[in-house]
Design a protein that fits this description.
Elements (H helix, E strand, L loop, with lengths): L1 H7 L1 E4 L8 H10 L9 E9 L5 H6 L10 E4 L2 H14 L3 E6 L1 E3 L1 H13 L6 H8 L2 E3 L7 E9 L7 E4 L6 E4 L5 H13 L7 E3 L4 H4 L2
Parallel strand pairs: 5-6, 9-10
Antiparallel strand pairs: 1-8, 2-7, 3-9, 4-7
């Protein structure tokens, strides 16, 4: 996935309904069902974590059963906001950047009823963004920040692009105890166009590798 992103020169901001997480789809089904006044909202998002050194987070983003290290792209809120400010000047839509809040499932269901009941037309995008920054409490360890692009029209596309140029500060190869896997990941990322100056390797397992 990291190599595809580099070769394509952009992240894909995808509709939350298409995300792999079954609980994200469950929440979207609650929000955007046929009787909801949010149903015409077309949202696209990308998620980031503010955690950086935690081994459990690296494990979450490592493909199960794979020895391949995870790859992390690093940016800043300022750069995401700069992209959003430029985008709203030239495209019909609204951008939102915020931290995800983690609530009990019962509270989420109550909130969904309120949100479906109907914001003023001018506030639909804002209300949808508020809803999409909510998640089940069990996922609090992810410490997510989300960038959302929201439109209210009748056309849903597969994705919106978030260009890499000027956005990424660092590309980190995740922790691995296999130096060959790390070297191979580095070679593939460089071949895909990763700037050498931005490419780093996690030292999380460094002490485990010392003789």
């Amino acid at each position: 996935m990291a190599e595809q992103t580099l070769r394509g020169g952009a992240f894909w901001m995808r509709p939350p309904q298409s995300w792999d997480d079954p609980y994200e789809r469950w929440w979207c089904n609650e929000l955007f069902r046929a009787d909801s006044k949010l149903r015409k909202t077309k949202a696209y998002g990308i998620c980031w974590t503010s955690r950086s050194r935690d081994e459990p987070i690296w494990r979450i983003y490592t493909t199960p059963g794979s020895a391949e290290p995870a790859i992390r792209f690093k940016t800043t809120a300022g750069k995401l906001i700069a992209w959003a400010n430029a985008e709203v000047q030239t495209h019909h839509g609204k951008a939102f950047l915020g931290r995800v809040r983690y609530w009990p499932e019962e509270k989420l269901l109550d909130e969904a009823k309120t949100l479906r009941a109907g914001p003023a037309t001018a506030q639909v995008a804002r209300v949808a963004a508020r809803a999409l920054h909510l998640k089940r409490r069990q996922f609090k360890l992810e410490a997510e920040t989300r960038l959302l692009w929201i439109e209210t029209n009748n056309v849903q596309v597969d994705h919106r692009n978030l260009p890499l140029e000027g956005l990424v500060d660092q590309i980190m190869i995740g922790p691995t105890t296999d130096p060959m896997k790390r070297a191979e990941a580095r070679r593939r990322l460089l071949d895909a166009g990763a700037p050498m100056a931005s490419l780093k390797s996690s030292l999380l397992y460094h002490k485990l590798l010392e003789p």
